[in-house]
Amino acid sequence: MIKTKTCCRFILLTFSLLLSAQVLFAQYSEYEIKAAYIFNFAKFIDWPDESLQSDTLVLAIYKYDPFGIIIDKTMQGRKAQGKNWKIVRINTIEDIAQCHVLFISNLGTFETMKLLEKTKNKPVLTIGDEIIGFCEMGGVINFTPQFSAHQFEINNEVALSRRISISPKLLTLAKIIANSEDEF
Amino acid sequence: MTKTGQTLVKKAIILGIFLHLAAYAVFAQLNASERRTLKTANSYFDNEQFAEALPLFLKIDSLVNDYQVTYRIGACYLNTKYEKLKALPYLEYLIKNMSLEVPLIVYNDLGTLYHYSYRFDEAIEQFRKYLEESKKDSYARVTDQEYARRMITVCENAIEITTKPFNAEIDILSSSINTMESEFCPMITADEQTLVYMRTIGLGTAMNQETHIMISHKNEVGDWQSPKKLTVDVADKYLDQSILLAGLSPDGQTLFLNIGIGANQDIYEATISNDIITDLKKLNKTINTTYYEGRVSMTSDGTELYFVSDRPGGFGGTDIYKATRNRRGDWDEAVNLGATINTAYNENSPFLHPDNVSLFFSSEGHKTIGGNDIFKSRLTNREWTIPENMGFLNSPKDDLYFVMNANGQVGYFSTSKNNVFDKHNIFKVNLKDPIPLTLLKGTILSGIPPKPMGADIKVYDKETGQQVKYVYNPDPETGKYLMIFPPAKNYNIVISSNDFLPQLINVYIPYQTYFYELYQEIILQPITLEDKMVGEQITVNNTFYDLYKTSEADSILISENLPKQPRYYDHLLELIENIIQTTDTLRINYRNVQINKEKENEGINSLLNLIEEAIETTNPVTLSILDANARQKDHIKNTHFYTDGDKSQSTQMQVIGADTFYTAAPIISQSSKSEPEQRKALSSTPIEKEEINFKISEHKDRRYVHRHTIYFKLNEAKFDPKYEQELLEICKLLIDNQTLGAEIYGFTDALGGEKHNLSLSRKRAQNVLRFFMDNSVAFQKLIVKGLGEVNEQAATSGNDKWRKVEINVFELNVE
Predict the structure, then answer these.
(1) Which residues in chain B touch residue A147, judged by CB atoms under 8 angstroms apart?
(2) Looking at this predicted complex, what is its ipTM?
(3) Residue B648: how many other CB atoms lie within 10 Å
(4) pTM for the predicted model, two decimal places
(5) Domain extent for A109
(6) Backbone angles phi, psi at A92, to 5 degrees
């Protein structure tokens, strides 16, 4: 019996070594990365003073929530702009009132447009989740699909109109979208 | 083992009677009451009441030194269920002081005990001695000699097998599964999310023994939750029969049971619903005979059934048989697996891995190291390979019930190793050879918000057009289904349900040498306009769990997509290594590795820091590598509109094999983490084709999806605001769906001048157009015409129904 025990211990050891070697190839999931981006965006973006009165930074997720618990885990206990995060999930445009970041995923073009219009000129950082034409419609940041040249696109004109200032570092890494000339 | 114990006892009894005379020597050393005790002990012993005899003999043994008493104590221990090994010192003592009073069989018994305790060399020595000595003994039985010879081979096997190195980790399952009672016969689903097993209560006690069938599911972090007892919903006629677990289909939808009295067990199939085993069905007569039918394993495609039977015509003992499903869906004549698998000894508990070529089973024959051992054989060129002993899993005792998950990484088995009371515990073994299979798990949801839905799923092999016979229908309560596919195959999946068009999904499973899992979420949602269903949208979300991504794959991604910046790259690799080492995002589905909160936080911290540093140093390479390595969800969306709201006219004909289906346009789903180009090709569905020119489209190409009319007051060009809501809904539909366009046709009544009417009808149409454009509908999508007054209506009926604008939403047939 003693023999087998030591044997087991040895095996346990070798296996744990192998395990760590295998883990090397593990990956992050899409939304773990997106959550980490959102967290970091807040560090490289300044909101106007009057919208930073409260002691929390509010992230609103509109209707469809692709993150699940991931976003809560990412934001929990970590500060951005010296504030704790507060995550709210909302279902109607009316609920948006007091948020700093608005995340929009899996929403039809029509509703996206209505939503962006509703928050127009408000200091809300709107983030689209791979929504086609999001920045052209008046969104601030849009994630791009995997294997794009840039991981996100930014419409800085919209940001400025919303009195949000984005760090040049972030702008350097983004694909820059300009407002379309033609309103049609 | 008990068998030899019994033969020893029988001999002892014969010998005992003969030796009663010799026993006088012992009697001389004892006082009267002690003599009485010995007498009682001997009579218990002669009546085979060993439990009663044992304490009495032990008492005498403490008083006198006598070979016969020693021998009888040894024999009593050998006949206990759980204390056999205690006989060891007594038998060793006898062998050392071998005399005529001691029967030769003692050598065999000591050999057996040595074998039990992994002292194989010593065991061989004892068996050899028996063979040698028994030659001189004319009373020696042939069966005992055969036993000794067999055991020498077994011990030699054991020396060979137990000294082989192995790379696997064996863990006992947590205390929620393994209790003080006996847990055995574990069965898992291919995705290792559900465990069904048996628990026997009261083993080793005087209590009535009871066997329950238990079920446990994994929680989010991959731990087995506390198990629940499954109750069997059966008619009274089974009440006095034993009901045992016999098998579980790889997707967990079908449970097999053994029901019967004594050795006449039969196989039944059943389903589990709300922790109740119901819908019991006895398998047909080709499977169930008047003989014993036991454990079952079904192939992942449901076409073959492997089971145990001791029916005549086999190779001896219980053998493994195979039955194939015929066209009517019933089982055909069972075939013996042949001499490669079945031996003259018992074969038991077959488990066919979901790859449908690896068979695990237990046998007392082959190259066993004692009792039942677990063996593995593979089907190559329609022949089974010579069974290989699973080595490290096996002990000199009975090892049974081995099962494995689909990726070949994790196996479960139960053994009584190291347990005094022979109580089994369930163990888990982490193996290292991945098996290249694709596990497709999915959920079908429908409605807004999405809820699980029942549906009928048919799967076809694309090359042969053959329907895969197994029924993959999702569980109506959870909407979940599970399929297992070999590499390098293409499949068509047809999903039919009551409320939606039949959907055809192409699944391509490329050639790969590693295992991966694909999670597919199919969401069917209605598109409604004024409470009428005008179309439906199907979304297929694929998530890949690509465990064995190779370093080559990484280098391809990097070389193709990134500017070469070696300076960053080294640093980055180091960084990524660090993060990855502290996290394992796949834990939920793959390993029971428990990641504690701190570790998880470390993982998140690394990721956050990595991105922050990349932004801080404006380093796009880090972000690109991170992006390329992300485990991605793949979204594929198709929208189907019904022609004039009529579902039946909106399908395409698909001929698959011998069947013809009318389904919505097929969806192509790649079930692998594809190369970048492929992925790009997939993500640009035809819907995204830029700027369809609706205006020059020919009338015949327009397929009308919805028609809507609004009415006007006399000589009024503006529409009533009450229509705004309806019009807004149409706007939404047009904006959200790029293939849709609309005709806006204005009309007037016959009152007033023709010219005036024409211009009025134009104004009406233009007002609607303006509303549409104000609501962001691209004007390219709209065809606007004023048609003036319509002649034939003149006298027929009231004028108000001709003061209108017609809005006809259509879809262009873009090929």
Answers:
(1) 561, 627-628, 676, 679-680
(2) 0.80
(3) 9
(4) 0.58
(5) 30-176
(6) -130, 155
